[in-house]
């Protein structure tokens, strides 16, 4: 009974975020339904002007002093991982949103943390992050999906409201390292992939073993980009306040490889491994990406004041000589 409930919940949650209540048959790996076709097959939002992901051009990022640190609740609690599921186009971990919230960081209120999922390329041979920075694509990207507390934990309610602040997604880049099977949290997480090779497979064995903090190890969570965008899968609803952290999570290449060698896309006739499950970058259309104010360093201000003093002295000397 509990298993059924969790399975049903997992299917519902993943569907509402990933399928977005969509009847559209979209995909990543076939020409008739890959992301280049989404503006046609799900035109209501996928053809919008505030779509995600984007390429972040660091030279165009504007400073925003309101982008303070976040308060994360329950990220250090290993009883929050309810289940891990293969949803046919990605792997989703459903989280206990009664225990997990995110606030601060200029978000307009408290957000309940619902789930996280991943986007990847093809192991070491090709990158698969969704956002890029100055054109750089990382091997993988982790998305933590949070819904504004006014929706009582219902992602579909936030989508139905077409509320531009309905969801807050936290994006983390993942970079490969050559050491074996590190960090431990990622080794444990990826060990469950073998239990969920096919679309619809899910397991609750993941409970009480991993904290979300352990998966974000080593990342300075006070340094991030912020912009207004959308879900990166149909129906591409423009309801997301995006936070993309600057520092990548460092994960062993052998663990990154597990994703593209273990899980299969929603089967039609033949099984195809999930690879390159990312949407390509979308036009900014005038949107502005902001980030923390970079403090001016003392040496440069000292140099400035020193040079102004020298200029004043020089001018005074010239004046004196002229007189
Ligand atoms: C998507 O499909 C189109 C044809 O509809 C093809 O030209 C393109 O290369 C494909 N892109 C990807 C990333 O698969
Ligand atoms: C997408 O939007 C553009 C600009 O608004 C419009 O010209 C085009 O017809 C739309 N395409 C679809 C498939 O709705
Ligand atoms: C974050 O937590 C700190 C310490 O508990 C508290 O002082 C601060 O008001 C909180 N900020 C937000 C935005 O909740
Ligand atoms: C992914 O990489 C493997 C091994 O390098 C290769 O055999 C396979 O064809 C690649 N798949 C795609 C979709 O590029
Ligand atoms: C959330 O719960 C509150 C209190 O139970 C209720 O007033 C409100 O209508 C609910 N909102 C949604 C979107 O379900
Ligand atoms: C959704 O909201 C945007 C503004 O945020 C608006 O332009 C658009 O028409 C709305 N779409 C629907 C279907 O309500
Ligand atoms: C995984 O999904 C496949 C295909 O639907 C199914 O045959 C199999 O029984 C499932 N395995 C588990 C462990 O749920
Ligand atoms: C999970 O957390 C509990 C309580 O903090 C702790 O006793 C337990 O050892 C943790 N389990 C693992 C596998 O880390």
UniProtKB/TrEMBL annotation:
<comment type="function">
    <text>Reversible hydration of carbon dioxide.</text>
</comment>
<dbReference type="Pfam" id="PF00194">
    <property type="entry name" value="Carb_anhydrase"/>
</dbReference>
<feature type="signal peptide">
    <location>
        <begin position="1"/>
        <end position="19"/>
    </location>
</feature>
<feature type="domain" description="Alpha-carbonic anhydrase">
    <location>
        <begin position="24"/>
        <end position="293"/>
    </location>
</feature>
<keyword id="KW-0732">Signal</keyword>
<dbReference type="InterPro" id="IPR041874">
    <property type="entry name" value="CA4/CA15"/>
</dbReference>
<keyword id="KW-0456">Lyase</keyword>
<dbReference type="GO" id="GO:0005886">
    <property type="term" value="C:plasma membrane"/>
</dbReference>
<keyword id="KW-0479">Metal-binding</keyword>
<protein>
    <recommendedName>
        <fullName>Carbonic anhydrase</fullName>
        <ecNumber>4.2.1.1</ecNumber>
    </recommendedName>
</protein>
<dbReference type="InterPro" id="IPR001148">
    <property type="entry name" value="CA_dom"/>
</dbReference>
<keyword id="KW-0325">Glycoprotein</keyword>
<dbReference type="GO" id="GO:0008270">
    <property type="term" value="F:zinc ion binding"/>
</dbReference>
<dbReference type="InterPro" id="IPR036398">
    <property type="entry name" value="CA_dom_sf"/>
</dbReference>
<keyword id="KW-0862">Zinc</keyword>
<dbReference type="InterPro" id="IPR023561">
    <property type="entry name" value="Carbonic_anhydrase_a-class"/>
</dbReference>
<comment type="similarity">
    <text>Belongs to the alpha-carbonic anhydrase family.</text>
</comment>
<dbReference type="GO" id="GO:0004089">
    <property type="term" value="F:carbonate dehydratase activity"/>
</dbReference>
<dbReference type="InterPro" id="IPR018338">
    <property type="entry name" value="Carbonic_anhydrase_a-class_CS"/>
</dbReference>
């Amino acid at each position: 009974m509990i298993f059924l409930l969790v399975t049903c919940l997992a299917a519902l949650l993943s569907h509402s975020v990933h399928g977005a209540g969509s009847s559209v048959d979209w995909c990543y790996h076939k020409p008739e339904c890959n992301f280049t076709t989404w503006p046609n097959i799900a035109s209501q939002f996928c053809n919008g002007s505030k779509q995600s992901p984007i390429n972040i051009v660091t030279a165009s990022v504007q400073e925003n002093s309101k982008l303070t640190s976040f308060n994360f609740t329950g990220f250090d609690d290993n009883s929050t991982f309810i289940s891990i599921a293969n949803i046919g186009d990605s792997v989703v971990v459903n989280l206990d949103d009664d225990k997990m919230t995110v606030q601060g960081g200029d978000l307009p209120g408290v957000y309940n943390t619902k789930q996280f999922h991943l986007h990847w390329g093809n192991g070491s041979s090709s990158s698969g992050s969704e956002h890029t920075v100055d054109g750089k694509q990382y091997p993988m990207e982790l998305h933590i999906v949070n819904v504004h507390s006014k929706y009582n934990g219902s992602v579909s309610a936030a989508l139905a409201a077409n509320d531009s602040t309905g969801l807050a997604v936290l994006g983390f880049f993942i970079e490969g390292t050559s050491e074996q099977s590190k960090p431990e949290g990622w080794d444990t997480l990826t060990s469950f992939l073998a239990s969920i090779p096919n679309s619809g497979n899910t397991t609750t064995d993941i409970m009480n073993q991993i904290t979300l903090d352990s998966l974000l190890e080593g990342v300075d969570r006070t340094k991030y980009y912020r912009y207004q965008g959308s879900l990166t899968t149909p129906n591409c609803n423009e309801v997301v306040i995006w936070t993309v952290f600057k520092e990548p999570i460092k994960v062993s290449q052998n663990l990154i490889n597990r994703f593209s060698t273990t899980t299969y896309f929603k089967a039609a006739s033949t099984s195809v491994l999930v690879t390159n499950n990312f949407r390509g970058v979308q036009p900014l259309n005038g949107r502005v990406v902001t980030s923390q104010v970079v403090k001016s360093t003392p040496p440069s201000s000292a140099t400035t004041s020193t040079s102004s003093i020298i200029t004043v002295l020089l001018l005074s000397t010239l004046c004196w000589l002229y007189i």
